[in-house]
Inverse folding.
């Protein structure tokens, strides 16, 4: 019942989560696949006259009970975040008589940064890419202030609200850093998006705000190459590739600058990819730097 639901999420009444009734959620189409779940476009239409709001509903893959606990953690995480650069939590929907639940979020009409940049490459200039980068930075600064590490920061997990607003989404891998440590150590590394991972995340499964900064550098690279890596490196967990990648990173190989990428932006990426995590910039200093780049209209 509602009380146990509130207790499960130790939410107090004033945070009364909105419970969406399944019978009023009209399925429209599939929007995408995130970590262990799929996201559907639905209209929540209690009046039955098509005047209801469009919402994005993340459903847990069926019969993956193990993921139910993870999914409930993801819901608890996103429901605690209030930032204009983080996708909004709207509520939950129970189905199959409490056996299954879905996460209801605001629907962002332009999809992920990957599809948006591929489609709108012509009319997105360097200044707009920097605006998106500064907004992702703001969202990450906020996440850091809540002691969360995202662990899956990538252009595929950034959604486009409008041509001047992007939001961080998909908190399926997000973890809280313990109060007495500077990092979170993962025990069971499942499929890993190693091309977005800092070296210490590959070799020691250590995740911190500074490993999120490494991933932010990769997102900068994706932004300035308009996510054109058709062969968008998929998630691989083949250990040999992972160790080979760490070795060439140790020998200071890094992704080359994207075509037409302003030198000072590439310099910023290289700073995010410092081998030692403590040599990487913070999200706040990156945010300041990007703000100055947006102001002076060079490149
Ligand atoms: C975060 C990444 C993994 C999981 N995920 C989340 C979503 C998602 N999508 C949308 N809007 C959306 C709008 C248009 C399109 C189209 C489809 C056809 N091709 C062009 C692009 C796709 C998505 N709003 C959302 N709110 C909250 C989540 C969410 C989708 N996948």
């Amino acid at each position: 019942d509602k009380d146990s639901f509130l207790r499960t999420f130790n939410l107090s009444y004033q945070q009364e989560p909105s419970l969406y009734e399944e019978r009023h959620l009209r399925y429209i189409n599939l929007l995408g696949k995130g970590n262990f779940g799929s996201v559907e476009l639905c209209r929540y239409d209690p009046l039955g006259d098509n005047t209801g709001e469009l919402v994005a509903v993340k459903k847990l893959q069926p019969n993956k009970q193990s993921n139910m606990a993870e999914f409930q953690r993801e819901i608890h995480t996103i429901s605690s975040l209030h930032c204009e650069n983080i996708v909004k939590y709207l509520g939950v929907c129970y189905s199959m008589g409490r056996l299954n639940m879905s996460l209801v979020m605001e629907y962002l009409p332009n999809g992920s940064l990957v599809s948006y940049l591929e489609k709108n490459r012509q009319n997105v200039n360097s200044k707009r890419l920097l605006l998106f980068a500064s907004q992702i930075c703001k969202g990450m600064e906020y996440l850091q202030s809540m002691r969360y590490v995202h662990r899956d920061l990538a252009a595929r997990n950034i959604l486009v609200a409008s041509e001047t607003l992007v939001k961080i989404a998909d908190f399926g891998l997000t973890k809280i850093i313990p109060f007495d440590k500077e990092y979170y150590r993962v025990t069971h590394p499942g499929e890993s998006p190693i091309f977005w991972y800092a070296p210490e995340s590959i070799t020691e499964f250590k995740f911190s705000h500074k490993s999120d900064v490494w991933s932010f550098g990769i997102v900068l690279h994706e932004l300035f190459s308009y996510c054109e890596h058709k062969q968008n490196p998929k998630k691989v967990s083949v250990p040999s590739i992972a160790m080979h990648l760490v070795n060439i990173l140790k020998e200071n190989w890094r992704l080359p600058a994207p075509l037409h990428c302003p030198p000072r932006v590439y310099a910023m990426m290289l700073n995010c990819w410092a081998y030692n995590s403590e040599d990487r910039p913070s999200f706040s200093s990156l945010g300041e730097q990007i703000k100055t780049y947006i102001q002076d209209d060079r490149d």
In short: Residues 126-145 form the longest helix (20 residues). Residues 94 and 101 are 4 Å apart (CA to CA). The mean pLDDT is 90.
